[in-house]
Design a protein that fits this description.
Blueprint: H1 4-17, E1 23-28, H2 44-54, E2 59-65, E3 68-73, E4 77-82, E5 87-92, E6 94-97, E7 100-103, E8 117-123, E9 128-133, E10 139-144, H3 152-155, H4 166-174, H5 181-185, H6 196-205, H7 219-238, E11 280-285, E12 288-293
Antiparallel strand pairs: 1-8, 2-3, 3-4, 4-10, 5-9, 6-7, 8-9, 11-12
Helix pairs in contact: 1-7, 4-7, 6-7
The structure holds a DNA duplex (16 and 16 nucleotides).
DNA sequence: ACAATATCCTGCGAGC
DNA sequence: TGCTCGCAGGATATTG
């Protein structure tokens, strides 16, 4: 799912293809009463405003903030997109027929996961930037570029591990006095960019059980988490993101991080850590499935048992 | 202050 | 073969 490496891969793709292109048409079939009154193009009234605002403006550049994508336009507006779980941008020549939008070219863009087109931004070179979003969870809104830093969707996002020093990272994490390390790592207001897949992989690498209470983790270990987070997220970026499920890059192609998983979705398999004879197990932690080794990621008890 | 649960939505694969 | 159902997980709201 789009976490930091997937979002970064997408933003890199946007900057590769879209700088200087002008938005000449806007189409969307997002519809959900759930979003009435909210800043999201799923709200009909908001969508017509969105259209008016972004039309005829060239794209300046794109940027990532945590897991959010910002597409800055020359007219002083920015498009803010959160892909949530199943959203991803695609770039190509698209034609609409009675079945919906289809890429002109055969190949990666015709991948089944690339066929859930909910938003089409037509460009002045005849191509389109489209958003495929199977489960319709994505958020798309517009905002004045200058107002971004005060908008909660951006201001509540903490720096990512690359933007923090080790000291800064530890300070952020230490804001929580208790709570489980997996949930804390995925809390975007403390450290941004890490989601379910990468948190599992990081915790595997630092030998911590996902439910370890933050109060039981010392400074040295927190430093290790920072180091490993950066390393693993970098690897994710280098491999073009994770396509365990539906994620595709802007060309419609898969990333390769899923081939390097040590624990994520590997329940039942033997632990890949050298010399460890454990087994990978799955447990729901904070409503999300955590994958970890039952041997070298043992839970450190912090509470005194009766 | 933290934990658990439901919600948004669709597709897939397991099992009957 | 064809159905039902659990699962997938980002963020947020609500309840405990």
């Amino acid at each position: 799912m789009p976490e930091l490496p997937e979002v970064q891969t997408t933003v890199d793709g946007l900057n590769k293809y879209l700088v200087g292109k002008k938005i000449t048409s806007v189409w969307s079939d997002y519809n959900s009463s759930y979003f009435d009154g909210k800043e999201n193009i799923k709200n009909k009234k908001y969508f017509s405003l969105f259209k008016k605002t972004v039309l005829n403006s060239p794209i300046k550049k794109s940027e990532r903030v945590g897991k959010n994508i910002l597409i800055h336009l020359k007219n002083g507006t920015s498009i803010l997109v959160h892909m949530k779980m199943t959203g991803h941008f695609l770039y190509g020549e698209y034609k609409k027929n009675n079945k919906g939008w289809l890429p002109k070219e055969s190949g990666a863009l015709r991948d089944p996961f690339n066929r859930h087109i909910r938003l089409v931004l037509g460009l002045d070179n005849g191509k389109s930037l489209v958003l495929s979003d199977m489960r319709k969870f994505a958020k798309v809104m517009f905002i004045k570029t200058k107002a971004l830093k005060d908008h909660p969707d951006i201001s509540n996002i903490a720096p990512d591990p690359f933007q923090l020093s080790m000291k800064g990272f530890i300070e952020k994490i230490r804001q929580k006095k208790s709570g489980r390390i997996k949930n804390i790592l995925m809390d975007q207001s403390l450290v941004s960019g890490i989601g379910n897949i990468y948190s599992d992989e990081v915790l595997f690498n630092v030998d911590l059980h996902p439910e370890t209470d933050i109060s039981a983790i010392n400074e040295k270990k927190l430093g290790e988490i920072w180091v490993r987070s950066k390393k693993i997220l970098s690897k994710g970026i280098d491999l073009g993101g994770d396509s365990t499920s539906d994620y595709r890059n802007i060309e419609g192609k898969r990333g390769n991080f899923q081939k390097k998983h040590q624990v994520y979705r590997r329940s039942g398999q033997s632990c890949p850590k050298r010399g460890c004879l454990g087994k990978i197990i799955r447990k729901v932690v904070g409503g999300r499935s955590a994958h970890f080794c039952n041997k070298h990621q043992k839970l450190v008890e912090t509470k005194i048992k009766k």
